[in-house]
Amino acid sequence: MRTGHIFNIMVGSPGDVIDIARKAIEVINLWNVHHSEDKGIVLVPHHWSSSSYPSLKVNSAQGVINSQLVDKCDALVAIFGSKFGTPTTNHPSGTAEEIAEVRKAGKEVMIFFSKQIDPDIAGMEQVSKLQEYKNTIEGLYETFQDLSDFEKKFSQKLNLFVQNEFQPLVAENVSNSKGEKTVLFSEEEIEIIQQWCNSSIDYCSQVAFIGGNHMFRFGPVQIETENPKETAKFIEFIKRLEAAGFIEFQKFDNRGKPRYSLTLEAYERFRED
Predict the structure, then answer these.
(1) C-alpha–C-alpha distance, residues 204 and 221, integer Å
(2) What sections of 78-169 are H helices per DSSP?
(3) Residue 166: pLDDT above 60?
(4) Which of 6, 212, 251, 252 lies 20 to 30 Å from 20, alpha-carbon distance?
(5) pLDDT in tens, 2-40
(6) Which of these, 126, 131, 62, 52, lies nearest to 90 by C-alpha position?
(7) pTM
(8) Which of 28-32, 63-67, 132-136 comes out lowest in average pLDDT?
(9) Residue 158: closest CA among 70, 19, 41, 18
């Protein structure tokens, strides 16, 4: 039986490019048809129109979308046409808030801007706000001419994105001792486990510094993160180590951080005697 890793991709956009958003979902589904079996990866597309449901748990529509989709996605594809969108409580538009929340969680965002701006559809105020927002972006974004151009470019960029962001996470499959699930580790992570198991230090710990950086220690291997994404990456690594049965909770240290120790299964699998 083949196993795979599921990644949730949210498609966010103002209402004037709903056709482009649907095309993005179509491209993601087509990627699955062509690549899921050999890559061991399944991409699940989500858009508020199809993946959200009515709820009064949060006191705003955007808050509901955040809790149901944004917080649970592994990556965001944001698409802008002529409109910037409706302001939310804390951000100039819903899509801008989704981008901010996903980036804050240390996850990847791909942004696409249409070259075809129509003030008659959006109004000059929306066009101006969109341009102002575009000017604040410090990373790399992509532009597209029309629906066909978007489909072509997004297909290419999605392949590159999966190759660089998701594929390293599924480099090696490791089943836990009971064979209940498959846990995935990259080659870099396997090397860390091997160094750890072949040392005299059996615990892992983490320290948070002022400014958001963390120091993770996996036995003799010490890694200081430089941004929230790296921190999230190693926290998730620890979760997978525990799920695979390679570590077990020991105690909370004096800073309130969990401390783990290696299990016999980890030594039997990775220690070089």
Answers:
(1) 9
(2) 94-104, 119-122, 124-136, 147-161
(3) yes
(4) 6
(5) 456 889 999 999 999 999 999 999 999 999 999 888 788
(6) 62
(7) 0.63
(8) 63-67
(9) 41
